[in-house]
């Protein structure tokens, strides 16, 4: 399979506001294969949107080379634009006076899709995303989440070969996010030659959905692999959730030999503590220490590292 | 190679919200027809009180109606791309495969259609209410002068739109600044020749000046006190139209490049 997206040593500098130029992307290289669902995960200001805008032909890289579908984003935009689309999270795009259906139709016209065909696709997608009851409502009367669904539909109506989704489930409820995630996965996997790059703040979304994930911070790619391999990076240590009754000097437990990470949460008259330990045997020491302090063990479970743990490990802080 | 099918669809697509969207707000239409009539009445009563020639009343009706086009070009065209940028539409337009000129053309056509509905209503009402006498000698020439005026005028709007794209709020101020003096300079309410030949010629860079002058000559004959012969005025308008549209095309291309380079096409808020 060939690469649908090729990014080579891309740096993007924005003309800093008196504080010197800011590097939104710093020597970024990555490639996304045709048929791949690729995720970009990173804290605010990491450079995710900047990369997407470059791939969407809306922004030029300051240096480096970017190819989409084999074409250069600087010199061959006319070859790229008919075959891509982008959806950004947030309440943007469209005209409030037009209905949902009319807005979607309007954007389809910029891609030259015959009206009849466009309307068939639109109706199909509106049904799929449970937005068909709003198809004739003016856009200014619908909710933020409904507008976001409309935006997602706008991206797919043109049947692009490469689609960029910048936080597509932002502001959506659990059901709607689930429906969209299911659709995204199917869209890439059940058709040939479709590629998707998405950014998200939801670790679960990246974990469930993506074939590969790049973790990006301060314009640099810190890691790029399948979610499973990324989590394997943390396999050397183990994570346990220990539930006990309240006992004195809980904080001192974090200083026991072999404990790498320690997080306490009080739940009513119980305490749940997460221990990240060097090796599993350390947890035995932890338990005897709890008992010697008069604490009573009520439950113990080993947990698998999540993508969030990987993220914390690499970036040094959590997302939220 | 230009894919004309795509361009036509894109133009129609962008004209649609313009033409249809605003018609959905009947109250806007009411004010857009009614308010120009008010200022027209004011001028007519003023001219009547001064004992001005009756032909001036016809001038005022035509001038007043054409005001709508000027406002549409200033607020509906020139400042439009800036506004589209703020709402996030601009980047969606830029990313799409059609020529960006088609977006401007769609905006212009939609604006022309909507404004024509208003302007013609204003003229019909004005002519009926004030019993304006006209001696329409050549309807075809009138239609041609009207259309070429609109093309030149909206061509100017297209140029401004691409220039304003990055000026942000400055665009608003400039449009504000151009709104009032235009009524004097372009002779909305009197024959532009009154300004003196050279001032009037300078004002002709704004297509509405010659457009109004030629249409009045066609409608009111010698009484119109025209600046240049009608045919010459129309010829100049044709040249101006072409120049504005070509300039808009270049400006748009350059602005798109600048925007991509400086990161000003995209919204900062995401
Ligand atoms: N148009 C612009 N002009 C100047 N600076 C910009 C522009 N766009 C982005 N930046 C800067 O580049 C950096 C990266 O921004 P970017 O929007 O790519 O981050 P992000 O990863 O998408 O963050 P978020 O999760 O908040 O969406 C930020 O420091 C931002 O301030
Ligand atoms: Mg972002």
What report would you give on this structure?
The complex is a heterodimer of chains A (320) and B (270). Chain A has two domains: 3-227, Rossmann fold, CATH 3.40.50; 236-304, Alpha-Beta Plaits (2-Layer Sandwich), CATH 3.30.70.260. Chain A is 31% helix and 30% strand. Chain A is built from ten helices and 14 strands. Chain A has helices at 48-55, 77-80, 100-109, 115-128, 144-157, 174-189, 203-209, 227-232, 282-292, 307-315, and strands spanning 3-14, 22-33, 37-41, 63-68, 71-72, 84-88, 162-166, 195-200, 212-217, 220-225, 238-245, 259-267, 270-277, 297-303. Chain A has a six-stranded mixed β-sheet, with helices on both faces. Chain A has a four-stranded antiparallel β-sheet with strand order 2-1-4-5. In chain A, a hairpin with a 2-residue loop joins strand 4 (63-68) and strand 5 (71-72). The two termini of chain A are 36 Å apart. Chain B is built from twelve helices and no strands. Chain B has helices at residues 4-23, 26-50, 55-78, 80-87, 89-95, 100-130, 139-164, 169-179, 181-185, 197-203, 207-220, 230-262. In chain B, helix 1 (4-23) packs across helix 6, helix 2 packs across helix 6 and helix 6 crosses helix 7 (139-164). The mean pLDDT of chain B is 86. Adenosine-5'-triphosphate sits between chains A (14, 22, 24, 42, 44-50) and B (263, 266, 268, 270). Magnesium ion binds at residues 48-49, 166 of chain A.
Count helical runs of chain B.
12
* Rg over CA atoms of chain A: 24 Å
Taken as a percent bin, the fraction of beta residues of chain B is under 5%
Assembly category: heterodimer
Question: In angstroms, what is the radius of gyration of chain B?
Answer: 19 Å
Q: Termini of chain A, distance in Å?
A: 36 Å
Helix share bin of chain B: over 70%
SS strand fraction of chain A: 25-35%
Shape of chain B: globular
List SSEs of chain A in N-to-C order.
EEEHEEHEHHHEHEHEEHEEEHEH
Quickly give the CATH architecture of the largest domain in chain A: 3-Layer(aba) Sandwich
Strands ordered across the widest β-sheet of chain A: 6-7-8-3-9-10
In CATH terms, the superfamily of the largest domain in chain A is: P-loop containing nucleotide triphosphate hydrolases
Write down how many β-strands of chain A occur, each being a DSSP E stretch of 2 or more residues: 14
Low confidence ranges of chain B: none
Strand element count of chain B:
0
Q: Could you tell me the CATH topology label of the largest domain in chain A.
A: Rossmann fold
Structural domain count of chain B: 1
Residue stretches of chain A low in confidence (pLDDT < 50, at least 5 long) are none
């Amino acid at each position: 399979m060939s690469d649908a997206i090729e990014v080579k040593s891309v740096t993007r500098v924005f003309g800093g506001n008196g504080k010197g130029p800011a590097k939104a992307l710093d020597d970024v290289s990555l490639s996304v294969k045709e048929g791949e669902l690729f995720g970009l995960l990173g804290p605010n200001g990491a450079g995710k949107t900047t990369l997407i805008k470059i791939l969407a032909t809306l922004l030029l890289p300051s240096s480096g080379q970017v190819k989409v579908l084999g074409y250069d984003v600087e010199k061959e935009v006319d070859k790229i634009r008919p075959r891509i689309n982008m959806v950004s999270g947030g309440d943007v795009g469209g005209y409030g006076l037009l209905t949902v259906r009319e807005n979607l139709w309007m954007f389809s016209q910029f891609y030259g899709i015959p009206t009849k065909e466009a309307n068939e696709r639109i109706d199909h997608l509106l049904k799929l995303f449970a937005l068909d009851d709003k198809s004739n409502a003016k856009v200014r009367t619908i909710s933020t989440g409904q507008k976001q669904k409309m935006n997602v539909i706008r991206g797919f109506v043109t049947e692009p070969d490469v689609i960029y989704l910048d936080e597509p489930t932002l502001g959506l409820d659990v059901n709607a996010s689930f429906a969209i995630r299911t659709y995204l996965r199917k869209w890439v996997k059940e058709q040939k030659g479709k590629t998707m790059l998405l950014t998200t703040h939801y670790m679960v979304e990246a974990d469930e959905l993506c074939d590969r994930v790049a973790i990006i911070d301060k314009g640099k790619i810190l890691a790029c692999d399948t979610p499973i391999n990324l989590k394997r990076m943390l396999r050397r240590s183990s994570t346990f959730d220990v539930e006990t009754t309240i006992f004195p000097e809980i904080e001192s437990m974090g200083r026991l030999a072999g404990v790498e990470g320690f997080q306490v949460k009080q739940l009513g008259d119980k305490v749940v503590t997460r221990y990240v330990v060097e090796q599993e045997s350390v947890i035995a020491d932890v338990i005897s220490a709890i008992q010697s302090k008069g604490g009573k063990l009520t439950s113990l479970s080993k947990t698998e590292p999540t993508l969030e743990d990987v993220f914390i490990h690499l970036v040094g802080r959590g997302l939220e | 190679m230009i894919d004309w099918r795509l361009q036509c669809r894109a133009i129609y697509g962008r004209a649609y919200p313009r033409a249809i969207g605003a018609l959905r707000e009947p109250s806007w239409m009411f004010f857009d027809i009614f308010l120009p009539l008010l200022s027209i009445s004011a001028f007519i009563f003023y001219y009547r009180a001064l004992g001005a020639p009756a032909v001036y009343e016809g001038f005022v009706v035509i001038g007043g109606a054409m005001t709508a086009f000027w406002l549409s070009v200033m607020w509906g065209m020139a400042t439009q791309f800036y506004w589209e940028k703020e709402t996030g539409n601009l980047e969606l337009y830029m990313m799409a495969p059609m020529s960006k000129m088609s977006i401007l053309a769609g905006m212009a056509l939609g604006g022309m259609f909507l404004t024509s509905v208003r302007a013609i209503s204003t003229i019909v009402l004005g002519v009926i209410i004030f019993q304006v006498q006209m001696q329409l000698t050549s309807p075809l020439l009138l239609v041609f002068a009207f259309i070429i005026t609109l093309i030149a005028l909206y061509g100017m709007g297209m140029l401004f739109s691409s220039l304003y794209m990055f000026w942000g709020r400055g665009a608003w101020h400039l449009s504000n600044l151009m709104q009032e003096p235009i009524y004097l300079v372009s002779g909305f309410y009197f024959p532009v020749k009154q300004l003196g030949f050279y001032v009037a010629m300078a004002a002709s860079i704004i297509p509405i000046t010659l457009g109004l002058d030629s249409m009045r000559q066609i409608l009111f004959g010698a009484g119109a006190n025209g600046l240049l012969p009608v045919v010459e005025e129309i010829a100049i308008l044709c040249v101006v139209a072409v120049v504005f549209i070509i300039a808009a095309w270049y400006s748009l291309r350059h602005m798109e490049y600048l925007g991509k380079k400086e990161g000003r096409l995209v919204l900062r808020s995401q």
